[in-house]
Design goal:
Distance between the termini: 44 Å
Strand content: under 5%
Number of strands: 0
Radius of gyration: 22 Å
Shape: globular
Helix content: over 70%
Length: 445
């Protein structure tokens, strides 16, 4: 049974990785994989508690999915009101070197609040308004991918994997941000500095001025656009504060934020009596455009990993890793390299299933307390995992949602990215890990 479950998971993984070849949506594969693994476990596992285990895992998974639905709705609400134009319209420089640092900084901080994919889309659309040469845009777009992945890794709401770690209690928001901010900055600064050296001084290639104009959606005034941007970002930033104040799960804070944005926009549009209903960007309208394919993909993946956890496969794997490697920097580093070719969501989910959060009593009772200390809440391993799984996705253009989006929008060639950008990303990745190691050596007690 165990071998068959692993085989089903690996086969599903292969089909997911080859989505662009098979033309079968990865969400369909993830759901089929989830159903097949749980069915096999139920039929052959001979465990009377399987139904309860399934219910428990579904509850944990749905907390993450509800959080994501709320966050995606707020981000889409900002976008449909042209809120991101407020940011992009203020970038006027055409100096190549200044543009590298400006794009890197904006992307880095924007992706800490938004998801990496949305941030990349916004910034690549901006690039098209600044740089006319498609090949020159590839360098900037690649840097945007690196900055988006690094920016999402230090924030509890910046990436699906950090959301998972934060919501399950593996990390706390403040400690993770404090520990990973500087390493993530280093992981962007190194590639950005190398990009500056590779670009000639001067002004970027001009664009056709006809493509530069970008108007707000119908019925949206600049004042309303700015208000929705500020209110939306504030509502997302409120979620960690809500958790710290109430100690309720993060998804509850996200529901409060979404409900508030919904109420505010309803009041605004109810007062616009002369506006046609068809052009009013109400939350009920935005909800219809939520990417449910992504939500269902996460459901299938997370529940598939949960089945492996219930069957004891992840525990056995963790024991093997502990015995053969027994060093958290090496384990996390390997996970980061794997995330360049494998989706980081199931990787992180698997690690969370392999290693439970340790308490002081469990650490003291273990055979190697110094090693197990890395697995307490906010332990070194969890911070390393958040960093490596997020930043490691930049090593290949196909290693993250941000990279795949940039590849599709700008037609970036896989081989070109591998030759020109992968080494920069790797040096940034290693530089950030060394920074974490230095922090660990300085602050370890």
């Amino acid at each position: 049974m165990i071998a068959t479950m692993i085989l089903l998971f690996v086969a599903g993984y292969v089909f997911i990785a080859l989505e662009h070849k098979t033309k079968v949506n990865k969400a369909a594969i993830a759901l089929l994989m989830c159903g097949a693994i749980w069915t096999l476990f139920s039929l052959l596992g001979h465990d009377a508690a399987i139904g309860q285990q399934l219910t428990d895992h579904l509850g944990d998974t749905c907390e993450i999915l509800v959080f994501l639905i709320g966050a995606m709705t707020i981000v889409d609400l900002i976008d449909t009101h042209g809120g991101f134009n407020v940011i992009t319209d203020r970038i006027a420089t055409r100096d190549r070197h200044k543009l590298v640092w400006l794009l890197a900084v904006i992307t880095f901080f924007l992706s800490a609040v938004l998801d990496n994919m949305t941030t990349t889309i916004i910034m690549v659309m901006l690039l098209r308004r600044l740089i006319g040469d498609p090949r020159e845009r590839w360098i900037y777009a690649s840097l945007i991918v690196i900055a988006a992945n690094s920016g999402g890794a230090w924030s509890p709401i910046g990436d699906v994997t950090t959301i998972m770690l934060w919501m399950r209690g593996n990390v706390t928001a403040g400690k993770m941000m404090y520990t990973l901010f500087v390493p993530c900055v280093v992981s962007v600064a190194i590639p950005a500095a190398l990009a500056v050296r590779s670009l000639a001084k001067g002004t970027a290639a001009p664009i056709d001025t006809a493509t530069q104009a970008e108007t707000l959606p119908a019925g949206v005034t600049p004042r309303l656009s700015r208000f929705i941007l500020v209110a939306g970002v504030a509502s997302l930033l409120f979620v960690p504060v809500f958790k710290e104040l109430t100690h309720l799960p993060p998804y509850m804070g996200m529901m409060v934020s979404l409900g508030t944005m919904w109420l505010v926009t309803e009041i605004i549009y109810d007062r616009k009596r002369g506006m046609e209903e068809s052009i009013k960007n109400r939350v009920s309208k935005v909800l219809k455009h939520i990417d449910m394919t992504t939500i269902l993909f996460f459901l299938g993946i997370l529940m598939s990993v949960a089945a492996l956890q219930s069957a004891g496969i992840l525990t056995t794997t963790a024991q093997w890793v502990d015995r053969e490697i027994h060093e958290v920097f090496s384990v996390a580093g390997i996970i980061g390299l794997l995330s360049s070719v494998i989706d980081n969501v199931p990787l992180v989910a698997a690690c969370m299933g392999m290693y439970p959060v340790m308490d002081a009593a469990a650490v003291a009772a273990s055979a190697d307390p110094a090693y197990m200390q890395a697995f307490v809440q906010d332990g070194t391993f969890w911070h390393l995992l958040a960093y490596c799984a997020g930043v490691g996705g930049s090593l290949l253009i196909i290693g993250s949602a941000a990279g795949v989006v940039a590849m599709g929008l700008e037609k970036i060639e896989f081989g070109w990215y591998l030759r020109r950008i992968s080494l920069w990303a790797l040096l940034g990745y290693v530089g950030g890990m060394l920074t974490i190691l230095l922090e660990h050596l300085i602050f370890i007690r």
